[in-house]
Amino acid sequence: MDAMAIISIFVLAVFVGFEVVSKVSSTLHTPLMSGANAIHGVILVGAIIVADHSKTNLELGLSLAAIVLATINMVGGFVVTDRMLEMFKPKQNTSGNGESK
Amino acid sequence: MNSTLYSLIGLAAGVAFILALKGLSHPKTARRGNLIGAFGATVATLAVFFYGAPLNNLGWIVGAIAVGLVIGVPAARKVEMTQMPQLVALFNGVGGGAAALVAIVEYLNLGAQATTAEVIFTVFTVVVGCVSFSGSIITFMKLQELMTTRPVVFPGGRFVIAATLAATLGVSVWVVVALGTTPLLVLAVLSLIFGVLFVLPVGGADVPIVISLLNAFTGLTVAASGYVLSSTLLIIAGTLVGASGTILTRLMAEAMGRSLFGTLFGAFTAKPQEASGSAEERPVRSGSADDVAILLNYARRVVIVPGFGLAVAQAQHTVRELADLMLSKGIDVAYGIHPVAGRMPGHMNVLLAEANVPYDQLAEMDEVNPTFGQTDVAIVIGANDVVNPAAQTTPGCPIYGMPILEVNNAANIIFLKRSMRPGFAGIENELLYDPKTMLLFGDAKASLTKVVSALKAL
Domains of chain A: which residue ranges? Predict the structure, then answer.
């Protein structure tokens, strides 16, 4: 990939990131952190790529360690974020329709 | 699978991540957003298998993923909400470690073919990834109380840190010039040490800033390894995380009224607080659970201000019980949430959400501050510095300039405290001696339980 394309992607992603994240409600800052954490777990893709073209045992060992860590990061991150977000609920209408005629 | 399709899938996953972050703008859409993000990540991972099929070392790769799943999923399922900061720190650290390992392997693999740009990005990833890894592990240990939560300072610490940083930068140049395996490994070790030294002097209350900063670091390492591996997806994902971490770091530093630099290196420059000369015992008004219940019973509006003590006592369910009881008596109840209450950004919100407190009762600082004048009772549970008026009135005190929740404007203030020990910053809180303040000593959960039963009896 040529350098200009990479720089363009990077700069645009910076702006999209700032734009999107600055709208996150402060109530959700913890899920934001753990959600963002989960997103960088996608380094798993990179770990699989380097494991694929590992030539020596050292390279393979290190890349397998990277796969383990990245999987923990990605899957654990999404699961725990989901658990947290599940708990955020608006005021429940427990009285519900029962009371209305 | 051809490379166009593979690239398109990567792009789609990048978009999924943007949607995941966008969903977090409101609690209603947040969960769906996260699922979109998880879906994108899964598809992107599967796409690598098909694109490279058949992958070398396939069995090993699948096995390693299985190991990661066996470790990660139960940890994420079982963690208590009060332990969330630790887990987030840990997940962040392993992500940084993974990125550093990927960069090292790619460097070993490319050998002499690596371009200078690739080597520079590799060096960046290794340094920042290792700092993020070891820094997050120390943060985890502090939060899990496997080590002291106080700032760890040793004589000459500043010089040791500066020397380590200088050595790290020196070796970085060495790697770029000499291109060898040994310098890269030396660099990794130095960076790991720097990460430890960097987080040691940071105290518990400043952890929200450090966690956000390390999160940004890991994001940037992932983006840099995206360059080395020519993966658009990694660049997009890493940059998004870097942006989110940067914004959170800035917000947290603002909420503490301190510069980022002051937070990270404050422990080295701070003058030790002279023991306050006034040794005389000053009178405080301490009350019983019954006194508190009576006060609440005749209030029209009550604001609850939770702090880290709420998390320590695991009192979130009891506080909700109390709030519900007051609501059923027609009392207006709100929670006033300080941005840095607790040990990570938004920590209190998650705890209260776990206790089924509807998010529309959680009021941000700017929202709740103007209402304290019309508030009959402010209940401060396990918080201190975030309500200390010294931040507004005493220039020169360590928290001066930090925005606070102005509970001093409420008609009555109730502090639930374990003891008269000052808050984390070690500053006396004049509010404790105020005539309109009542103190209820004891474990927050036990005290709240007593207040609930006393209020029920009224």
Answer: 29-85
Domains of chain B, CATH where assigned: 79-269 (no CATH), 289-457 (3.40.50.1220)
CA distance B232 to chain A (A): 8
> Residue B68 above 60 pLDDT?
yes
B386-419 confidence digits (pLDDT tens) = 898 988 888 877 778 889 999 999 999 999 988 7
Question: Chains A and B: how many Cβ contacts under 8 Å?
Answer: 369
The percentage of chain B sitting over the pLDDT mark of 90, rounded to a whole number, equals 57
Buried b vs exposed e over B8-43: b needs ≥16 C-beta within 10 Å? Answer: ebbeebbebbbbbbbbbbbbeebbebbbbbbbbbbe
Kindly determine whether residue B98 and residue A70, on different chains, have CB atoms separated by under 8 Å: yes
The answer for residues whose C-beta is within 8 angstroms of residue B449's C-beta and 6 or more apart is B318
Q: Point out the residue among B76, B108, B219 whose CB comes nearest to the CB of A36.
A: B219
Would you call B65 and A39 a contact, using CB atoms and an 8 Å cutoff?
Answer: no
Average pLDDT, chain B: 88
Residue keyed to tokens 């120390």 = B138
Catalytic residues of B: 385
The pTM score is 0.87
Query: Residues near B372 by Cβ (< 8 Å), separated by ≥ 6?
Result: B303, B378, B405, B406, B407, B408, B409, B410
Q: Alpha-carbon distance B267 to B201, whole Å?
A: 6
Mapping DSSP to helix (H, G, I), strand (E, B) and coil, where does residue A45 land?
Answer: helix
